Amino acid sequence: MRRPTILTRHHPYAAPSARGTLRTAALRTTTLRTYAMPVTDY
Hints:
Elements: H1 5-10, H2 18-36
């Protein structure tokens, strides 16, 4: 699966910590969900 590393890297919550890792994982799943959604959902 492709990970949106660029978006995660530039996100302020992408911190090298335990909490940051959890937030990064949540952001990745959210971003993937957003990509999977149709454009009309915006």
